[in-house]
Write a structure and sequence with these properties.
By secondary structure, the protein is an alpha+beta fold. 12% of the residues lie in helices and 30% in strands. It has a single domain, classed as Pdz3 Domain, CATH 2.30.42. The protein is built from 1 helix and 5 strands, in the order βββαββ.
Length: 82
């Protein structure tokens, strides 16, 4: 996978078609960081995402996501269920 220098994070391998991220993420995306009121936090593992979910005050997780398909970075807001 050819990524811009300095790009790193958690690779999205699959997305549940019935899940809250179904229309927002796709396989191959790289979740670089979670965005919060204080600062961005790098994402290196699923545990980092779980921690972001646990601390999401409004139930929405904001992610900085690099999309190789679009050759760009975007903010994705996901409201996890249950």
């Amino acid at each position: 996978m050819r990524l811009p220098e300095g790009t790193g994070g958690l690779l999205v391998e699959r997305v549940d078609p019935a899940g809250p991220a179904a229309s927002l993420l796709q396989p191959g995306d790289i979740i670089e960081s979670t965005l919060g009121a204080e600062s961005a936090r790098p994402v290196h593992s699923i545990d980092d995402l779980r921690a972001a979910r646990a601390h999401a005050s409004n139930g929405v997780i904001s992610l900085l996501v690099y999309s190789p398909q679009a050759s760009g970075t975007r903010v994705v807001n996901i409201q996890p269920g249950g």
